Amino acid sequence: MDRQLTSSRRKRSTSILSHWTLRYFLILCIGFTVIAAGALYWIRTTSIEKGLKTAELLGLEIADRVTVKDHQLQVPPNLNMIVSKREKLFNTDHYFCVMVLDQNNKLVFSQPEMQQKDVYYRLSDDFLEPRNNKYAGVMVDIADGNQVMGKVWVMQSKQSITFGPETIWLVALIFGGLILCGWLTIYLLSRKLSRPIRQVAYAAQQIRSGNYDVSLTLNTREREINELVSSFGDMATRLHQLEEWRTLSLAGVSHELKTPVTSIKGLVMAVRDDVVNPQEGKEFLDIALKESERMERMIADLLDYNAMTAGSVTVRKERTDLKLLVGEIVHQWKIAYEEHMPEVQLHVPQGSLYVMGDALRIQQIIVNLLNNGLHATPPGQQAQFHIHVRAAKNMLHVDVQDNGTGISLEDQPKIFERFYRGELKKRRNRGLGLGLTYSRLLAHEQGGELTLVSSSPEGSLFRLSLPRWVSQEEMQISEKAYRSTVQA
222-266, pLDDT tens digit by residue? Predict the structure, then answer.
């Protein structure tokens, strides 16, 4: 049986400061070493070339001063003094020498003074190049007309015409200084960058452990770092709010679902144990049925909201006659709540008003507004609604005015938040506080908006705005555009 062996050994982690400074230092050392080697090679080659050119000039001068008489080379008597003066142009050592050879390669003149055997020691067997490659030399012919009568050799060691230890030390100091400057720069930069990252990492550890009260007060000139720190602080605040919302919403949902379950359980047990008479038992069962229906509505709201936020709710956009749609919605809603005898007055302008939206979703929004207004009506008072349908530029508006108790000023900015329920609504009826949130999401999906226009103890006014359908042939279309099925 084959087994895949995996190493449980964790990679050793290091700080950003240590990681980047060490690696950058190694890169600098390697890079500057290569550059220094190339620079020294270039300096050596250039120095040898310049030294040989200078030696060639000296050889040409000596060749011009040596004369030929009777096929014999005649060396001027002051040649030693001339050569001595020219030696000051050279970085000479003990190997520097000037030799004048005749056409038979016999030594005629030398400085310093040498013997013929020294010529054999310094030159190759053909007398055309130095015998040792550590030394360099220049040969200049001594000519008499077109005939070569001899040659002048100026020889010196390659080390003397390249660079000495001082040059090597100077190059080493320069490149060493550059390496230290580069390392110091990356060290300071890494330390500056690692400081906010360390703070953010520490704050992330605090958040992971459940402590959301983190403080990041670092302020630098770098815009990206400031944006990172600011965004992380905002994220921590948002996570804190979401955690509080999750706790509160879970507790609220649990409480709201537990209450009808407890009521149903108590009512059913009372009927089962014959605690009440048959007539009261029937009333208890009716109450239990209403509680189960209320719990079913809360679960449906929760499922609808989760489906909308997950993107699994399909919202179609098609041409719909808004006047016909709103009239049909009001008619069916009044039938469903006939026992409450609500009064609904519909105000619509002349002509057709076509909207681009989903008829079923528009119905959900308007029915939710009507239900909210009905629940907000004080006990013993008839629910009255005024619905106005009107057009404004490229939008169509549906205003729903009720005669409920209204929404307090402190609750108005929060009524569209998920699971939010005002204190008055909590006391009157039970719900999850998702109706307005879900309705606004449906309006947004259709390119519209749901807003609270005004609210007072005499009632509230909500406005549903939807994009208007506009066509050049709109006046010629007489067929009924609204074909969507409206469910009560």
Answer: 777 777 777 887 888 888 777 776 676 666 566 556 667 777 888
Environment class of residue 269 by beta-carbon count within 10 Å: exposed (0-12), middle (13-18) or buried (19+)? exposed
Give the C-alpha separation, 225 to 217, whole Å: 12
SS3 category, 359: helix
Cβ neighbours, 10 Å, residue 478: 7
CA-wise closest residue to 396 among 357, 444, 344: 357
Q: 199 by DSSP, 3-state: which? A: helix
The contacts of residue 91 (CB under 8 Å, 6+ apart) are 51, 160, 161, 164
Place of tokens 């190694």: 26
Q: What is the pTM of this model?
A: 0.46
The C-alpha atoms of residue 46 and residue 286 are separated, in whole angstroms, by 110
- Give dist(CA 443, CA 355) in Å, integer: 12
Residue 107 β-bridge partners: 101
Residue type, 479: E
In sequence order, which residues have a C-beta less than 8 Å from that of residue 158 and are 6 or more positions away? 48, 134, 135, 136
- 149-158, 377-386, 410-419, 450-459: which range is least confident on average? 410-419
Residue 462 has pLDDT above 90, yes or no: yes
pLDDT digits 0-9 by tens, 173-192: 888 888 888 888 888 877 77
pLDDT at position 401: 93
Contacts of 296 (CB under 8 A, 6+ apart): none
Tokens for 310?
A: 């997950």
Percent of residues in the chain assigned helix, strand, coil, to nearest 5: 50, 20, 30
> How far, in Å, CA of 12 to CA of 215, rounded?
30
CA distance 331 to 341: 12
Helices (H), 337-405: 359-375
Residue 461, SS3 per DSSP: strand
pLDDT band for position 111 (cuts 50, 70, 90): confident
β-strand partners of 391: 396
Nearest to 73 by CA among 99, 54, 92: 99
Report the number of secondary-structure helices (H) and strands (E) in the chain: 11, 13
Tokens coding 321 = 């006659």
Specify whether the CB–CB gap between 396 and 352 falls below 8 A.
no
CA dihedral 376, 382, 388, 389 (to 10 degrees): 80
Mean pLDDT of the 472-481 span? 46
**Alpha carbon of 109 to those of 71, 87, 91, 172: distances in Å?**
16, 16, 22, 43
CA 163-169-175 angle, 5° bins: 110
